[in-house]
Write a structure and sequence with these properties.
The protein has 153 residues and is α+β, with helices and mostly antiparallel strands. It is built from three helices and eight strands. Strands 1-7-8-5 form a four-stranded mixed beta sheet, with no helix packed on it. The chain has a four-stranded antiparallel beta sheet with strand order 4-3-2-6. β3 and β4 form a beta hairpin. The chain is elongated, with a radius of gyration of 23 Å. The N and C termini lie far apart (87 Å).
């Protein structure tokens, strides 16, 4: 009788341990296809815009390789931007830019491949009509009297 009880307890314990390991492994996995905001990058961008300079130059962002940028304003519909610009934004389709008015979404590309995003507070100012690719060397902005950030032409 003791042998049966030992085997039953042993298998039950082993099963519980295995299930626990599987649970924590699955719970700790993020969906690799979804791109999440880079908080350090967002803070760096906000600092650039809050410096009292005439021109904000984002081409100075060199902590990663990028060559183009798109800035989406609040309530931008990602699927429409995909169609307009003929790009794949699937990794950020779950982003809250479509529903939240407190952020602008900075999307960074390297050779047309989406590599990083940053949700930047609108305290830095608004960006209008920037649903376009902005070359790194042209990512220079000036703030007008209305608090709008415009590309330097």
């Amino acid at each position: 009788m003791n042998i049966k009880l030992y085997k039953t307890t042993h298998y039950t314990t082993k099963t519980i341990v295995i299930l626990t390991i599987v649970f924590f492994t699955l719970a700790s996995c993020k969906d690799k296809s979804i791109l999440y905001t880079d908080l350090l990058l967002a803070n760096q961008i906000e600092k650039e815009f809050n410096v009292a300079a005439d021109i904000t130059n984002l081409s100075n962002l060199n902590s990663f390789e990028w060559n183009e940028l798109i800035i989406l304003e609040p309530y931008s519909q990602i699927e429409l931007v995909e169609k307009e610009l003929q790009i794949n934004l699937k990794p950020i389709r779950e982003n809250s830019i479509e529903y939240i008015d407190a952020i602008n979404l900075f999307i960074f590309f390297k050779d047309k491949k989406l590599i990083k995003i940053a949700e930047v507070s609108r305290v830095t100012g608004d960006f209008k009509n920037l649903k376009q690719f902005i070359k790194k060397e042209s990512a220079k902005f000036i703030k007008n009297q209305d608090g709008q950030n415009k590309l330097v032409q």
